[in-house]
Design a protein that fits this description.
Elements: H1 3-15, H2 17-28, H3 31-47, H4 57-77, H5 82-89, H6 98-117, H7 120-130, H8 136-143, H9 147-170
Helix pairs in contact: 2-3, 2-4, 3-4, 6-9, 7-9, 8-9
């Protein structure tokens, strides 16, 4: 289409703007969406480019505007609603703050010091349970000892660490 033909479309849009607006508003059920679609249509006409012959300019303009409105609706569906944004903003950040991180590091260092003071086998049993997640029967099998011994060593290790950490906190 030549520049003259684009001007025919522009003139048709300007002449029938009110009618197109009414028809779009009824069809889209939104005057805001109809207004935005006609604005996008006008901008498309101003951009120009290649186009085949148009025998019914008003129908063509209506189709362009409806297509722009549908594209806008699809894009809007991808956006969050106000309620969804409110919910997202109220999500609690469970990550520890710097003070909590420092406290946790301090407690882990104290636990490391407590574990160093445990007898070798008791420490290994405690770590097998705590770090490796082994059950007492698995620990008993690994170390070649009875389950009762495992339970007893775990209890003594936990009591020692608890007492040590309690003492470390008071220092």
């Amino acid at each position: 289409m030549t520049n003259a033909e684009w001007s025919v479309l522009r003139d048709a849009l300007l002449e029938s703007y009110d009618d197109l607006m009414r028809r779009l508003t009824r069809r889209l059920r939104s005057s805001d969406l109809a207004h935005d679609a006609l604005q996008d249509t006008y901008l498309r006409i101003e951009r120009g480019g290649q186009l085949g012959p148009v025998s019914h300019p008003r129908s063509y303009l209506l189709r362009i505007a409806v297509n722009f409105a549908h594209a806008r609706q699809r894009a809007d569906r991808r956006l969050l609603t106000a309620a969804e944004i409110d919910v997202a903003l109220q999500v609690v950040d469970e990550k520890p703050n710097p003070a909590q991180e420092a406290e946790l590091k301090s407690e882990l260092a104290a636990l490391d010091r407590a574990l160093e003071k445990l007898p070798k086998r008791r420490r290994a049993i405690f770590l097998a349970s705590w770090q490796d997640g082994l059950s007492p029967p698995e620990i008993a099998s690994r170390f070649g000892i009875s389950k009762r011994t495992v339970y007893q060593d775990l209890k003594l290790a936990q009591e020692f660490c608890s007492d040590f950490l309690g003492m470390a906190a008071t220092k």
